[in-house]
UniProtKB/TrEMBL annotation:
It comes from Streptomyces bathyalis. This is Geranylgeranyl reductase family protein. One of its GO terms (molecular function) is oxidoreductase activity, acting on the CH-CH group of donors, NAD or NADP as acceptor. Residues 11-327 form the FAD-binding domain.
Length: 427
């Protein structure tokens, strides 16, 4: 009996956290034939604070995982981004690219995460829900060889063993902290708050981004820090939220839930963004940006998604990068697993942070400069007033902010953005 339990709790890889990063990592590892344990703290379905809007980058990853993203399966497609600011309103379709589809998607996170996790299970990953991971198990050299956890409602102490562990446990990433990996204070951090309203705008086929947030309740209109979004969910509700950056002077001072209320109060009444139409509480979450926790590999531990600070500083998008880092981590682990000696395996694993820096480093450095600029509401105001009247410039901005370019054979805009990302220092 003990041997059976031991084998059930021993694998080639342990993935801690079954959000988009963890589920994607586990799916690709299992597809490649590795034995994977996927440990999820809560039980599905479970809520996550998110805008629920997915760009074409994320759509591409869902297609690669074999997820049915048809409207019949409950997905709402969108054509692009509507930008509102500086007295202007501009609709920009997602670019036509060889590398990415020309549509985005919307799906609630409680349902979205579960779909990914179940897909990983179908591929062969063994998932434990209500499995709260605590301490890492370390060998004499300080290398991780497993984790201690509490399982089920009874919180039964258990141990799981594997030569490699993936931390996909989000922004708080207790596992990384226990391994001595702390957040870099020199990297931007964001906060997102959002809620849902019953609204006639629920089936909007554009993601809507507000570059200026106005509080129009007083004698004088007041420009609030941050940017807002309105995403139709296709189910009778809209996801309405705002993001703010710690480069803003007001970051620590203000109550962001109150700011969301002030902003929605200034919207047209017929949209229905009023307290009585709210279908749930206002919830908030941190957005760890631009590689804010490093190294992404150390002593048998790989960081993916929010645990490694992979949120795009330009637009606050995290899901696409969570999934992409999961793919990169899985490919790295599969190659390392096939090496004959520990030294060769280690050589292969150390390539993981290098690939992340090659892929995103320059782009994230540009993003950090951008974040410093727009932390000033005056700069944001001038940028929106001048920029939104130039559709060509805004098409360039859309490609830049959403990181949507063809790496080779693209147009002039693609070449400029790719060139800037190449010459910028690698985060």
């Amino acid at each position: 009996m003990t041997d059976t339990v031991t084998s059930e709790r021993t694998a080639d890889v342990i993935v801690v956290g079954a959000g988009p990063a963890g589920a994607t990592t586990a799916y690709h590892l299992a597809r490649s034939g590795l034995d994977v344990l996927l440990l999820e703290k809560t039980a599905f379905p479970r809520e996550k604070v998110c805008g629920d809007g997915l760009t074409p980058r994320a759509a591409k990853q869902l297609v690669a995982m074999g997820i049915d993203i048809s409207e019949e399966a409950g997905w709402l497609r969108n054509r692009g981004l509507r930008i509102i600011g500086g007295g202007q309103r501009l609709e920009l379709d997602w670019p036509e690219l060889a590398t990415y589809p020309d549509y985005g998607l919307v799906r609630k996170r409680d349902d979205f995460d579960e779909q990914l996790a179940r897909q990983a299970e179908k591929a062969g990953a063994r998932m434990y829900e209500r499995c709260n991971v605590g301490e890492p198990i370390l060998d004499a050299g300080g290398r991780i060889t497993g984790v201690h956890a509490k399982l089920g409602e009874e919180k039964t102490p258990v141990t799981f063993h594997a030569p490699l562990v993936v931390a996909a446990d989000g922004n708080s990433t207790r596992l990384s902290l226990k391994m001595g990996l702390h957040r870099r204070e020199d990297r931007p951090m964001g906060v997102a708050v959002r809620t849902y309203f019953t609204s006639p705008r629920h089936d909007d086929d554009y993601l809507e981004s507000w570059l200026e947030l106005w509080d129009r309740r007083g004698a004088q209109d007041r420009l609030l820090p941050g940017y807002g979004w309105v995403f139709g969910m296709g189910d009778g509700t809209s996801n309405v939220g705002l993001g703010v950056l710690n480069t803003s002077d007001d970051f620590k001072e203000l109550d962001w839930r109150e700011i969301l209320k002030a902003w929605t109060a200034s919207m047209p009444e017929e949209w229905g963004y009023t307290p009585e139409n709210m279908t749930g509480p206002i919830r908030g979450a941190a957005l760890p940006m631009a590689f804010n926790r490093q190294p992404h590999y150390t002593r048998g531990l790989l960081l993916v998604g929010d645990a490694g600070g992979l949120v795009n500083p330009f637009n606050g998008e995290g899901i696409a990068y969570a999934m992409e880092s999961g793919v990169i981590a899985a490919e790295t682990i599969v190659q390392a697993h096939a090496r004959a000696t520990p030294a060769q395996r280690e050589l292969a694993l150390r390539r993981y942070p290098k690939i992340l820096k090659e892929t995103y480093g320059g782009y994230y450095t540009l993003g950090r400069a951008f974040v410093k600029l727009i932390g000033n509401p005056k700069v944001m105001k001038v940028a929106t007033e001048r920029g939104l009247s130039h559709p060509l410039l805004m098409r360039f901005a859309l490609k830049m902010l959403a990181n949507l370019t063809d790496p080779s054979g693209g147009d002039a805009m693609d070449r400029v953005i790719n060139g800037l990302s190449k010459v910028a220092p690698r985060a």
